[in-house]
Design brief:
Elements: E1 6-12, E2 15-21, H1 26-46, H2 52-72, H3 75-94
Antiparallel strand pairs: 1-2
């Protein structure tokens, strides 16, 4: 293990995982784990009869969708996309 990394144990969906992270990331990682574990618990209460793997998969999908939506709503990204659209429009107008 690199001296730059910190080895921590986290609990997610009732299981322990040992991960290596940078010390500066520990607080954010622990917060993310808590948020994910809370989301899994919420899924468990809303969808009875499902397997633990289903709850983990649904939580992962939820976060992936949120990330995709956030990237579309990012003002810097929107600005870059608008600039590209303007350039494409100018090129097409010349043809």
């Amino acid at each position: 293990m690199s001296e730059e990394n910190l080895s921590i144990n986290i609990w997610l969906a009732g299981r322990s995982y040992r991960i290596r992270i940078k010390p500066a990331e520990e607080q954010a990682v622990r917060k993310a784990v808590k948020k994910a574990d809370d989301q899994i618990s919420e899924m468990r209460s809303h969808y009875a009869g499902k397997d633990e793997q289903d709850f983990i998969a649904m939580t992962l999908l939820s976060y992936a969708a949120d990330t995709a939506i956030d990237s579309f709503n990012n003002p810097l990204l929107q600005d870059e996309l608008n600039k590209l659209i303007t350039k494409v429009d100018k090129v097409l107008a010349k043809e």
